[in-house]
Amino acid sequence: MDLTGFLAAWRTTSLPDRELIDALVHPVHAGPSPALAAALAHWPGSYYWSDEPDGRHLVLTRPLARRRERWVPHLVLFLVTLYTITFAGAVLAGAIPYTGPLVFFTSGHPGYPGFLHAWSRGLPFSLPLMAILLTHELGHYVVARRYQLDVSPPYFVPVPMFPTFIGTMGAFIRLRTIVSDRRQLLDIGVAGPIAGFLVALPVLVCGLALSHPVAAEEGFRGLVVFFGDAPQIPLGDSLASFVLRRLLVGDAAMINVHPVAFAGWVGMFVTMLNLLPMGQLDGGHILYARLPRWHQRAALGFWLLVVALGTLWVGWYIWGGLVLCHRRGARSHGQRCCSLSSRSRRCRSASDEGGWWRLAKGGWGGSGGSGGWRRLLRSEPTSQTSPNLPRPPEPPAQPAPPYCVTGSGAYLYPNQP
Prior knowledge:
The protein has 417 residues and is of the alpha+beta class. Helices cover 39% and strands 16% of the residues. The protein folds into two domains: 4-65 and 355-385, no CATH class; 71-277, no CATH class. The protein has a five-stranded antiparallel beta sheet, with no helix packed on it.
């Protein structure tokens, strides 16, 4: 398949999981022309357009052989997390008495009296919450696969009822390759919060419709989670939850939150935490994709804000510490990202030495000619360009942060403001 007749210049980059072409389209075909559109209909991969200062670019990707996924660990973690969240829901519903942080180990087993009946009471909490977390991660996963990136299925993180009251620390996926440009970074980073929010919102609406006002008690106002027939966890209001509870429940001083509503609230809370623009959170990826030069300063400012909020609730201290640990851990895994020019959405390969290598004429789909597609059996990406492509400015002399799409956990403690 030969597209060179439609192009003014191009650059080919071979990565372990895919081959990428960043092509400057000839102005005559930049529409695209009917001939180019017909040729792209037979392209054995994906592509998208990018308007740049030097003209209209076509970014084409052809995947190489995909690795064989090992689904068993993901399925096991999913089922174990469903188990722990269902137990947490049973405790919140009062079906299993809360006796302390070790209650999971004393009552979370099939030998517990009335095990099936008690745990069935936890499903109204666990099923909506698992749906929110799964949808969030699938948002990342589907968009990453749309760009034909090597990405893992979601990993769920189960925990007993300590350090969280919800039975999980969230979920994450691994991006096992480098992104090609900041457009991919932005689209993948924003897809998870949008998908999770679209599920969390109707869950919250249904849950608030099932909730009911109760007599106010000292120290509790607004949305309150009951377990043990007593108010235990006061929930703060987001703008969405404030408007919805006013519409659905009224202006009651205190509301006994239904487990479904609590699951929706947790989904909103997780989305908020994930959108904080720092570290390896989705908000950090989104900010870096849009404003890379502001990323470090904004991340530091928000991290200091999180630490300051720790004076109101100790959970913020824990969250700030986990963000730092997560960032360091992600670096230690050796993940790499393309070095991106601040003036363009396109990128230069992490191993690009800066030289421009002349290509002999030849089609991209043929096996002959140095301009054809080449399957390189080495881990380092290589870059080739056409002789007509001008040399771009060097990117800033700073390492680009590794890209690792993650979910997040919700850190909920009694007496939370």
